[in-house]
Amino acid sequence: MAQVNVYKIDGSKSGTMDLPEGLFGVKVKSSLVHEAIIAQVENGRIRIANTKDRSEVRGGGRKPWKQKGTGRARHGSSRSPIWIGGGVTFGPTILRVFGKKINKKARKGALAMILSDKVASDLLVAIEDISAEDMKTKTVAQMRNSLPGAGKKALIVTTADEKAFVRAARNVKDTETISAGSLNVRDIAKYPYVLASKAAIEQIIKNYAR
Fold it and tell me: Strand 13-19 vs strand 175-179: parallel, antiparallel, or unpaired?
């Protein structure tokens, strides 16, 4: 059984929390984690650039000049890619598909591996309770300075009941929040430290444990 240290919001340690081995104690395969991150990046890519090839460019139906006898190179259309104003060869198009397929089992396995790596490296920190309705930005900033990872970027995992904390954390430097239901490999890998309330960890276990 894996374990993580639990801290109060003032930075004092309150104990430990047991974590299931199937989600927080698995062997890490960097190739699978890399595959999951690349798939997530590519599947979220937005296609904006769109060029036209010679079949889409307007005009060019008439042959510019006759085939023989002019002394010039032969051409069949002014929409040829070698002409100014012609089509573009192999240009970017909104029809191009960048997405990469990764099956559900591999995606969940990669998430378990990145979480296990955080636990093994003492980069996952559990927080006793952050559900107070009067949570302020100053309180969150003080909490970040008191907990492990102070001065470094951290991702804080929250539940739907911790909305006040999410609002308070918006203006705290090097701090980002994410819902436990939206947890993903890319965001976890992006931040050195992952902080999570006990309620959020319980929700992660409920949602992703095998």
Answer: unpaired
Measure the CA–CA gap between 60 and 54, rounded to whole angstroms: 9
Residue 155: strand pairing partners: 176, 194
pTM surpassing 0.85?
A: no
CATH superfamily of 2-43+101-208: Ribosomal protein L4/L1 (3.40.1370.10)
**pLDDT tops 70 at residue 210:** no
Report domain extents, the chain: 2-43+101-208, 46-97
Establish how many alpha carbons lie within 13 A of residue 149's alpha carbon, considering only the half-sphere containing its beta carbon.
26
Report CA-CA distances (Å) from 83 to 53, 67, 79, 87.
12, 17, 7, 8
Tell me the H-state helices in 60-176. 104-120, 137-146, 163-168
For the residues of 156-173, what is the DSSP string, one character each?
A: EEE-TT-HHHHHHTTTST
The tens digit of pLDDT for each residue in 150-169 reads 889 999 999 998 999 999 99
> 193 by DSSP, 3-state: which?
strand
Whats the size of the chain, residue-wise? 210
